[in-house]
């Protein structure tokens, strides 16, 4: 569908503007494949980290206060395969339990970031355990898929885990705006090194100028997104939370929208003092891979024949099998945030920097 620029959002920096879909994935451009904003008001747990079902128990209904997704008792996504792309799971609040076919696992959230190159194939689960029994268990995070070039689609899977306090954050001098830089070069000279993505991911090459950033602006706040380092990137901005009054490049934004931006212009985001709530944006960009994309379900390749091969390989090998006792694997409720990669368990505060990077699988 062709995107059009409405009069409400006309500006030099905004190339097109469209309302965000009410439910489901956000529109994305090459090299991004998929982006979902998960926001669920989960209730208190029942002591088994479970929630009352909504809908039919495999629920994506946006009219519900929360979704079970493919979980039947614990919300989330039980074991499922991937091949041919990278995943980025960027958390804001709540917890996620990860388990995979290589034997890795972990519990992360509350601002932590996990990046995974699925490469030639892996099976993993992502569950949302309702830890608290005395208060609600809200969760907010982004699940983002980034494509791999053909030469890297069959590489060995790899991971990186970044704990919340190691993720670079830029804050304006008045403290009224901040940008959490999940992935990307240091656009604001933050003073902290950017996260290093897993090897062979498209984001691992700095010349591809990949950025994924969560921006929050308080009433009266203002922040500038600088020009892109690489002039050919696809640059997108998503207005995900807030009410009317926000402006992007002096254009008023009256609803939740997806904006295509000119990467060769800086963009100023502002929220008037009169606003009653903060405004939140997701900024994503990257140099396009410009290769054919064949996608079916959890597999992303270049040709349809490669998709058929992925299904055959999965049927034959299960991408290593499933070493866990349940498909919707969760860890004990009392266990804190941790990462188990290559047989080594780490936590957010295991070294002086609080950052543990897993070895390649």
TrEMBL record:
This is Pirin-like protein. Residues 342-361 are annotated as: Disordered. InterPro entries: Pirin (IPR012093), Pirin_C_dom (IPR008778), Pirin_N_dom (IPR003829). Residues 214-320 form the Pirin C-terminal domain. It comes from the Eukaryota. Belongs to the pirin family. It comes from Nitzschia inconspicua. Residues 64-146 form the Pirin N-terminal domain. Pfam families: Pirin, Pirin_C.
